[in-house]
Structures are given as C-alpha cells and as structure tokens.
Design a protein that fits this description.
With 285 residues, the protein is an alpha/beta fold. Helix content is 40%, strand content 19%. The longest helix has 15 residues. S-adenosylmethionine binds next to helix 7 and strand 4.
Length: 285
Amino acid sequence: MWRGWRDVLGRLGFETAALDAKLLTGHALGLDALALATREQEQVSDEQAANVAELLQRRMTGESVARILGEKEFYGLPFWLNVATLEPRPDTELLVDLAIEALPQGGRLLDLGTGTGCIPIAVLANRADAEGIATDIALDAMTMARENAERNGVQGRLEFALGNWFEALDLGYSGRDGGEGFDLITSNPPYIASDVVETLDPEVRAFDPRLALDGGPDGLGPYRIIAAGAARHLKPGGQVLVEIGYDQGESVSALFAEHGLTEILVHKDLNGLDRVISAHHLKDE
Ligand SMILES: C[S@@+](CC[C@H](N)C(=O)[O-])C[C@H]1O[C@@H](n2cnc3c(N)ncnc32)[C@H](O)[C@@H]1O
C-alpha cells in the first residue's frame, strides 16, 4: 500500500516520496523495512489503512517524517523529539566532533539550550570519562533530553538544570563544575533574526518551536549572553564552542573578543560554510 502513497506524495512534489511513504506506512503498521517488502500483498484492515492515511496526511501538510515518527538519528544515536524540541540537524555534528576533541580527560561540559540533549549526549556517549550539565528554558525540552540521556545510557553522567542560559546554574543543580568552572561550554542557541523567522519555510515555521529559532532582533541575543558569561564559567584554559549561522562568523567572533576570549576560530562545515566558533579562556579572572 506504500506505493500508492508514494505516488500521491510524488505528484505533490515531495522529493523523498518513496522513502517517506515506506517509513510512515511501516511505522503505522508496526512493520520494519523487510516486513513491509515481504508482506506487501497482505490485506490491511480499515483501521490500519486509516492509521496509515493519518500519518501520510500529516506529511502532506509539511510536517517532517522525523516529527511524525517522534524520533531522529543524530551522531549515530537515536533521539526522541517532542513539540518543544528542535530536530537535531546534521550540521550540528561538527560541533560534537570538536567538543569530543576539546574535552580534557575527565572533563566537565556545560551545554546551554540543549533541546533534545543531542550535543551533550553525543559527546558523553563517545567520552566515557566525561560528565556534564545540560540546560534549557523549556521544561518539555528538558524532560525529553532526560529521556534521551537514559535512552543512550549517559544518564549517570549528565545532569539537567532548567532556566535562562547561565542563570539555570544558580537554580539548584548539584554543582558539578566543582566550583572550579567547566572545561567546555557548548551551545547551539537560537540564532535567526526575529523578522527572518517569519520568512522561513512553512515546514520550519509551523513545526519547529519558535523558542528554538528566534535569536532576537539581530539573531545575536543569545551569543551576547554566552560571550559575556563564558569566562566566568570556564576554567582557565577552558573552551567555548557555539554553532552559528553561515553569515555570523565575524559578528560572533567580535562578541567573544570583546569579552576577553582568545584563540577565536571559525570552523567550516562540509559545505564550506561557517558553522562553529571556538574560543578560549586563557587567564584567571
Ligand atoms: C536551536 S535550538 C538547539 C537545540 C539543541 N541544542 C540542538 O542542537 O538541536 C536552541 C535551544 O535553546 C533553548 N533556549 C531558548 N531560549 C533559551 C534561554 N533563554 N535559556 C536557555 N535555553 C534557551 C530552546 O528551548 C532550544 O531548545
């Protein structure tokens, strides 16, 4: 039956019509790819057909397959999604690569605006010696991140703090920075200017939480806060890594420099676009 839906999606211009139809049909029927292929001739009940149609109709309104399935793979690991979380993007894997490399042995990480928890969970899953804290201002995102930490087996090494950027750390976490500061701060904050959010693809605007996208009038609001607070929360020699929009390399570098961070580098993604900024806190404050 997925072939019929593939044709419908194809006629509507969905580039991944076949894959989308297979994944959603399989999900609605509780069949994996192999079962879907081998049981193609079997009759489905009216109820099953209605379940398939419901998911495909959601896809037709522009909702992504990952949102409909409620999960997305990132850095080779599975993450649940909910309405409060952004879908982890492949672009963000560069930040995770750099974080895994940057953390010293036994290092402590702070991830600001964690969403699904994809950044710290992927880092800790690859660094069994490290631990960290993840923050978000959205309670539902934090709940999802906790479940994802358990799903990926890092719950014993990742703590959560709800609140506004660094202020979350004052609101009753157990002090896992040991009072000395963190070795690494990571963040993929909202970085789209408010008026640009209005012009995004309907798919993004309708289904991604605005809190995860809107970086204020010039898109730099969260970077100002992170740049201003980084040195205070980093150990001497500690590093901050932030994801940026392709045209924000210069302005975000300038913010970090303004706040005394050094060795500021802009890292390009596989498409050759500016994607991550790293900066160091070299001296004691
Ligand atoms: C672009 S999303 C990134 C989510 C996740 N880190 C990722 O890479 O997929 C930004 C996240 O920042 C959170 N956020 C927005 N405003 C915040 C604030 N004032 N304090 C803390 N987190 C905030 C949002 O809820 C969202 O989860």
